[in-house]
From TrEMBL:
Its cofactor is heme b. Homodimer. It catalyses: Fe(III)-heme b-[protein] + nitric oxide + H2O = Fe(II)-heme b-[protein] + nitrite + 2 H(+). This is Non-symbiotic hemoglobin. It comes from Dendrobium catenatum. Belongs to the plant globin family. PROSITE patterns: GLOBIN, PLANT_GLOBIN. The keyword Iron applies. It holds the Pfam family Globin. One of its GO terms (molecular function) is heme binding. The lineage of its organism: Eukaryota, Viridiplantae, Streptophyta, Embryophyta, Tracheophyta. SUPFAM superfamilies: Globin-like. Residues 1-91 form the Globin domain.
């Protein structure tokens, strides 16, 4: 899986957009882009970042049975998602 992580992460987001095509509009860096989603380097970078954070949290959960996210990090992520219009039910 490690050698194909970028491809797998991208496939995850492409699947989200397949299920909910309107979700593309939530990503400012995809708006007005002429690059197909599957070739968009910004989408791939975002997908990998999300995957890395998720893996780190999963590793914490596995070893400590809890996830500790720094409050500043959590506030930053939440604020961005609220500004972009992401609702709780979308998660």
């Amino acid at each position: 899986m490690r050698k194909d992580v970028a491809t797998l992460c991208l496939k995850f987001f492409l699947r989200i957009f397949e299920i909910a095509p309107w979700a593309v509009k939530l990503f400012s860096f995809l708006q007005d882009s002429q690059i197909p989603l599957e070739k968009n380097p910004k989408l791939k970078g975002h997908a990998v970042s999300v995957f890395i954070v998720t893996c780190e949290e999963a590793a914490q959960l596995r070893t400590t049975r809890k996830v500790i996210v720094r409050e500043t990090t959590l506030k930053k992520i939440c604020t961005k998602h609220v500004v972009y219009g992401v609702l709780d039910e979308l998660f």
